Amino acid sequence: MKNYATSTLTNAVASLRSSDRARLCIYLAGTDRKLVGLTAFNFGEDPTAARQIVDYCESQDALLTLYRGLQQGYPAALHDLKAGSIETPLPPGVNDFSEVDAFYQEMEKQSSTTLPEMDQRTTRIASVNPNVDSSGPGAVLTQSQPRQQSGVARLLGCLISLLIVAGVGYYAYTMFGPLRLNQPVNRSDSLTAVSMVSAQDGWLVGSTYRQDEPTIALLLHWNGSDWLRVAKRINGDLNAVQMVSADEGWAVGSEQGGDSTRGLILHYKGGRWSKQNLAASGILYGLAMVSPDEGWAVGWGTILHYQQGVWQADTVVGNSLLSILHAVQMDSRKHGWAVGNGGTILEYDGKGWHELEAITNNELDALAFSGSMEGWAVGKSGTVLHYKDGHWRKADLPYTEKNLTAVCLLSASEGFALGSDGIMLSYSGGQWTKGVVAIGQKTKGMLTSPTADVTSATLIAASDGWATARYGNLLRFEGGVWRPFYRN
To answer: Would the pLDDT of 199 be above 80?
Structure first.
C-alpha cells in the first residue's frame, strides 16, 4: 500500500504547474527543515520533477508532510485523483482512493511514535559523518555528547538561517506573487468581470470549464479580505456584472438551449442570485445599469432595455442588422454609448440608438468615460479611440499590436488600459505610457513571462482596484502598482 500511496502523490504533484510545485516545495521547506533541499527542485517544467519531490520525502514522516502540504495548499489535485481525473491504476486489493486517504490518516495517528528519537538521529548522522571517529570509545562520546557551540556561533547561525529564509521568501513573492493557500479559483476558471460597491464589498463573475461537462457560471463575493465562491450551480457563461447597491445587482452572459446558445441574465436581490425569464436573444457581453429600475445589455446582434421590471429588445434607428456589441456605458438615462465588431460605435440620445461612422475597422471591446464629455474605447491590435469635444478620434499613444480588452479611469486625467499577454498602458497628465504587468506565469527555468489575458478592470480609489483575467488569474491595484492577487 505504501508504494501505491506514494505513486498517487507523484501523480498529484505532477498535475501541478511548475510554479505551484515550487510553492509547494517552499511550503514544505518551511514546515520541515529536513526538506529545505526541495527548494532546489521544480522551477522548470520537467514532469519528472514530481518524482524527485516524492523521492526526497523518503521517510514516513516527510511523506506525511508532503501529503499535508497537498491537502492544505492544493486540495484540487487530491480531489482530481479521487474523482479519477488523474489516472492512477489501482493495485490488487485496493478498491479506490479512499483507501489511500485512510492509509495517510493512519500514518498521521502513528506519526508521533514513528518519528526517530533525538539520540537515534544523532547516532545516524554521526555514523555517516567523515569527521567523526567511529572507532574506539571516543566515537561514543562524540555521538552522545555533541560539541557545544559558543553563543556567538549560535547567534551567527541563526542570522544566516534568517537571511536564507528571507531570501527564499522574497524570491518566491517576487516570482510567484503571494502564496495564497486554498484559492477559490484555478486554471479551469475564466474570470470575466468585476463590480465593486465599495472597498469592502463587490462581486466577480466568470465561467468554470470541465472536460465533457456543461460550462458552469462562476460567482464570487468579496467580503473585504477574500473572494468567496458562491455555491450555486447555473449552467452557462457570465460576461458582465454590475451592482447598483450592496443588496441588488445584475449579471449577463449566455446559456446553452438545445442546439443553440442564448442570452442569460441573473438578478441579485434579497441575498440570492436568480435566473430571469428572457425572450430569445443572442449572447450578452455588456451591461450598464442606470438605476435599479433601468438598464441596458448588449451582445450578439442584441440590445436589451430593462424598464418597468421587464427586459425588452431594442433596435438601432435605421439599421435592422445589428453588429456584435461588446460593451455599453450610460452616463445618464438619456445618453450612452455602445461599441463592438468592425469598429462599431452606437450613441443613445434618449430616443433611440444611432450608429456613427466608423473610424477603425478593428473590434472595440471596452469603454470608460469620465462624465459625459470625455472617454475612451479600446480594442484589437492596440486600438485606442478618444472622445472629446463631441468627436471620436484615434489616440496618439505608444505603438502596440497587443489586444486591449479593458480600460478604467480614476479621473479624466488618470487611468489604465490592459489586455493580452500582460500589456498595460498607463494614462497620466494627458500621456499614455507603455508597460507590462505579470499575470499568469509560464515558467522557463528562472525566467517568466505573462500569459493570461485581462478581461475587465475597475478602479475604486487612487490606490485600490481590480482586474480579472483568463485561467483563474486576478490582479489587484495597490500602492500605484498592479499585482497578482490570484495567480494560476
So the answer is: yes
- Does residue 353 lie within any of the structural domains? yes
**Which range marks the domain in which residue 41 is found?**
2-115+148-176
466: nearest Cα among 252, 266, 222: 222
Q: What is the CATH number of the domain that holds 291?
A: 2.130.10.10
Residues 240 and 205: their CA atoms lie apart, in Å, by: 7
What is the tens place of the pLDDT at every residue in 258-295?
677 889 999 999 999 999 988 778 899 999 999 999 99
Report how far apart, in Å, the C-alpha atoms of 100 and of each of 54, 55, 104, 261 are.
15, 18, 6, 42
Q: Cα separations (Å) of 265 from 214, 244, 249, 298, 353?
A: 17, 15, 11, 11, 22
Our count of domains for the chain comes to 2
Greatest alpha-carbon span in the chain = 104
> Do 83 and 210 share a domain, yes or no?
no
C-alpha pair distances (Å), 429 with each of 42, 192, 369, 390, 482? 44, 29, 16, 21, 19
Q: What is the pTM of this model?
A: 0.64
pLDDT of residue 252: 97
* Beta carbons of 235 and 216 less than 8 angstroms apart: yes
Identify whether residues 212 and 104 lie together within a single domain.
no
Closest by CA to 185, choosing from 440, 464, 451, is 440
- Per DSSP, which regions of 308-400 are E strands? 310-313, 325-332, 335-340, 345-348, 353-355, 364-370, 374-379, 384-388, 391-394
Residues 313 and 448 in one domain: yes
